[in-house]
Structure formats: structure tokens, C-alpha cells
Amino acid sequence: MRLENNLSRTFDILVEPGLLESKHSDAFSVLDDRHVLVITTPTVDRLYGERMRDLLATRSVDFDYLVLELSEARKTLDYVQQVCASAIYYGIGRKDTLVAFGGGVCSDIVGFAASMIRRGISHIRIPTTLVGQMDAGIGIKGGVNFRSKKNVLGCFHPPAAVLVDPVFLATLAIPSILQGLSEIIKVALVADRYLFEAVGTHGETLVFSRFQQPDDASLEILNQSIKLTLAELQQNPFEDQTLERLLDFGHTFSPDLEEESGFVLSHGDAVAIDMALTCTLATELGIMSVEDSGEVISLLQRLGLPIWSRLLSVNLCHSAICHAMVHRGGAVNLVVPTTIGKARFIRSPEQLDENVFRRCIDKLSKPNEDLTLSGIAKSESLRKIVM
Ligand SMILES: NC(=O)c1ccc[n+]([C@@H]2O[C@H](COP(=O)([O-])OP(=O)(O)OC[C@H]3O[C@@H](n4cnc5c(N)ncnc54)[C@H](O)[C@@H]3O)[C@@H](O)[C@H]2O)c1
Ligand SMILES: [Zn+2]
């Protein structure tokens, strides 16, 4: 006997500047004829709440609206329960929908709540941060932190639609833009040299204009990052096809760094340090050229992303490899760039001995000796030494 079931569900991601302007409100037709509960956070509500409520009212959407003080520290089951309790209170039924209107924390919590309410109702994501728009908001995962482990409880629950408006990014703080840029550099390094070069050309403008300038390039960079991320997710949406995931680049040493810092070190900063370390490792092992690795490190520094932390030690690298092996079914599957835009996997830990890590950490702690390419403005380096 067997019960066939098919969990896969297709959804569209619309990228459209100016979504909250009424002329674009067709994007919101997914909400018609449903009872909708919008969940947002105080900052997003202050900046965009009125426009969102006006737009929903103009479309005659039957909606309720919940503002929750969400943050990384509050990404817990308690807040998922609060969303569930509100959905029940407002009478959200099987055919109704939640809307996550905010950053990655909001979409992770709302996605998780939607997966549990009546064993799964629909939700729509309107991500308002760069991380949300090119990473957290476009995948199918929701989740929370639990017992000091990040994202350890969660679900695969595809949204019904994702509406991406880059205009929301205009009000973000620069550190929040940098968090997203770190993830964009991650995907560029393993999949697209052209994207890496575009970030190299426009990086400072993108950061200081909060992704509003240059007009065409910012939209193209956002679109391309989303496209590449989706192409990777598409091959393994439920993470059960392979334990070799290109998007794990920058995510082997970073979890341990974040944890070791007591989560003072932000995720994007930890990913940047991990990428710098892995590129240095790749040159030490003869996998990536010194020039390519230097170019990566120069770009990270120029944009104000860190490449080293006092917490980076041989022991930490060793534990991170052990933790990654548990997560990746016994293989290291360390993603290392072979050149900018291409990567391969190191599967066994034998190549990764203590001395190699020691040499890499030494190099990164004094980066201006031979790692920085002379062509790229050393003097403008905004290098941060974290912790
Ligand atoms: N599910 C996934 O696949 C996935 C992938 C990557 C990251 N994540 C999760 O995403 C979270 C990080 O997301 P994040 O970086 O968006 O952080 P966040 O959701 O905490 O938002 C950061 C800050 O930006 C503010 N904000 C949001 N939109 C704004 C706007 N338009 N203007 C001004 N301020 C605004 C928020 O109020 C918040 O203070 C982490 O918890 C991470 O685990 C999930
Ligand atoms: Zn990440």
C-alpha cells in the first residue's frame, strides 16, 4: 500500500519598483477573495504601513493588520505562537492567507506559522530588506532559533507569491544593505563573474544609495542575484537531493563564528569573513589564483565588510568543519571557488590540516601585505576588525 503525495508547489516572484503605488496594485490580485492577515514590524509599519493599508482598502481586500516587535532575538517559537493566536483570533480559515511584510525575521516567523495553522495555509511575502529580497524571502524555508541554535526549528513551506519592491531598500540602514551585499557576493563568487564585476564597479554607489543607484545596474544586480539563488534552490528545494550545495559557500565557518561571538557578529559579516578565509584557503591549496583571491578580499574590504575576526582560530575552523560534516551527511562539502564565478567542493577533511588554517588566518590578520590587488584602491579600504 502507498499514499502518493506531492508537496511541490510553484510560485512566482515579481520584482517591480513602486509596488505600493496603486497603478501596480494588480500584483496584489493574489489577495482578492481571501481574508488576509498582514504581519509587519514597527519600523516597516511606520515607513510603509499607511500606504499598504490604503492599497489593500482600495482593492477592497478583507484584511486585518498585526504589528509585532520582531527581531533576531525574538525569532522564537513564542512569536510564531503569537502569529498563530492572532490568525485564530481573526478567524483566518483554510483558504485565507498571511502576508509577511518585513525583513527575513518576519518572513521566517510568518512562514513557519503559516505552515502550522490548520496544517498549512497560504502566505505571501513582501520582503523589505536586501537579505529578504534576494535570500530569506524568496526560498521556501521558515524557521526560528531554539536553545541558542539559529534556525534549528522550521519548515519547508512555499509562499503563494513573493512581491519584491527595491524601493523599500531606500530606507534601510547601511549595515543592513551590507548584510545583503555579502550574500550577493557569495552567489556571484560561485556562479557569475559578471555579477561580481558589476558589484565591483558599482559597490560603493549601491551601498551609499541604499540600492537605488545606479538605476539600471541596481535592478539588474538584484534580479540576477535572485535568479541565481533560485536556480540553485530549484535543484534541491527540500535539501534532500544532494548535500553538495553551492549556496553553502561562506556558510561553513560563519555559523561557528556567529555563535562564538554570542551572536554579536552579524550573519553577513560572518559570511564575509568565511568567504575571505575560504578564498585564502583555496589559494593555499592551489585551487584559486592569488590574483582572484586578492580581488575578492579587496572588494570585501572596500565595501566595509570584514575579512578577519579575533575569534578566528585553528580550533574554531576545526570545530566548524566537524559541525558542517554532521549537517552535510558526513562529508565536508566545503565550497571553494576555483576562479571568480566558479566553484568546486572539497569533500574530505584530509586536505584541511591545522597548518593550512594557521597560514590562512595569519595572512588575513595582516591583509595589506600581499593579498590586496594593487589596482584596487587600498587607501579607500574601510576594513573593519571585528571583535
Ligand atoms: N528562510 C531562509 O531561507 C533565510 C535565508 C537567509 C536569511 N534568513 C533569516 O533572515 C533573517 C535576517 O533577515 P534581515 O537581514 O532582513 O533582518 P531583519 O528581518 O531583522 O530586518 C533588519 C532590520 O531592518 C528593519 N527594516 C526592515 N525593512 C526595512 C525598511 N524597508 N526600511 C528600514 N528598515 C527596515 C527591521 O525593522 C529590522 O530592524 C535572519 O533571521 C536569517 O536567519 C532566512
Ligand atoms: Zn546566509
Q: How would you describe this structure to a colleague?
A:
- This protein is of the alpha/beta class.
- It is built from 12 helices and 10 strands.
- It has a 6-stranded parallel sheet, with helices on both faces. A two-stranded antiparallel ribbon has the order 6-7.
- Helix 3 links the parallel strand 4 (97-102) and strand 5 (122-127).
- Helix 9 (267-284) packs antiparallel against helix 10.
- The protein is globular, with a radius of gyration of 21 Å.
- 46% of the residues are buried.
- It binds nicotinamide-adenine-dinucleotide and zinc ion.
The geometry reads as globular
- Number of E-state strands: 10
How far is the N terminus from the C terminus?
58 Å
Tell me the strand order in the biggest sheet: 1-8-5-4-2-3
**How confident is the prediction overall: mean pLDDT?**
92
Structural class: alpha/beta
Counting DSSP H or I runs of 4 or more residues, the number of helices is 12
Which ligands does the model contain, each kind named once?
nicotinamide-adenine-dinucleotide, zinc ion
Can I get a quick summary?
This protein is an alpha/beta fold and 387 residues long. The chain has helices at residues 42-58, 77-89, 104-116, 130-136, 174-191, 193-208, 215-234, 254-260, 267-284, 290-302, 314-327, 354-365; strands at 12-15, 35-40, 62-67, 97-102, 122-127, 141-146, 149-156, 161-164, 334-339, 342-346.
